[in-house]
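pasting Transcriptional regulator with XRE-family HTH domain for the record, 73 residues
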Amino acid sequence: MPGVLNRALARILFAQMQESSMTQTELARKVGLAPSTVSRALHCKTPMTVDQLEAFCKALRLDPSAVIAEASR
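structre below
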């Protein structure tokens, strides 16, 4: 089960995805992952890897360091 930090990261990424009017399918295509993998990561069904976090941030035009700092508050 993903921990507190992972849940906070997922919440931030999911909010940015919605703000950008991007679907999970679009995000999956941009990062080269299956939509089910993106869904599991963003809904905290599986822990998000560092590589996934970096890919999601790049696709959403976010700074990974800033996202981690915000999630750590």
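The chain has a mean pLDDT of 95.
DSSP finds five helices and no strands in the chain.
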